[in-house]
Design a protein that fits this description.
This protein starts with 8 loop residues before the first helix and ends in a 7-residue tail after the last strand. By secondary structure, it is α+β, with helices and mostly antiparallel strands. Helix content is 32%, strand content 29%. Strand 2 and strand 3 form a beta hairpin. The chain has a 4-stranded antiparallel β-sheet with strand order 2-3-1-4.
Amino acid sequence: MEFVPPDILPKLAAMSRYTLLILTKAENYNNEDTRRIIQSEHLPYTFKLREQGKLLLTMPVNDNTAVAAIGIYASTDKAEVEELVKQDPAVIKKIFNYELLSAAGLKGDTLI
């Protein structure tokens, strides 16, 4: 941190830790039943995790890429988060693959 301006250092020290989820399109993503599964099973599961305070942010990706969505989990315990992700109906049905990454964010950051 030798090149960080001194006024920024305290903000960096106060960063919170999270687990970042990256959902990518899996082998069954283009199946005819995908939209139904996402809307009737994946979304309710996602919103349940949000209501429980486990999943802090979800964002579908609208560009035509392999990445379908990202999420931020409150936990830094990747094993705990992985158990939650493995229970997602869209992951179980191979609509999404996933990757979990350790991440940090500044306290008080919000989306508008």
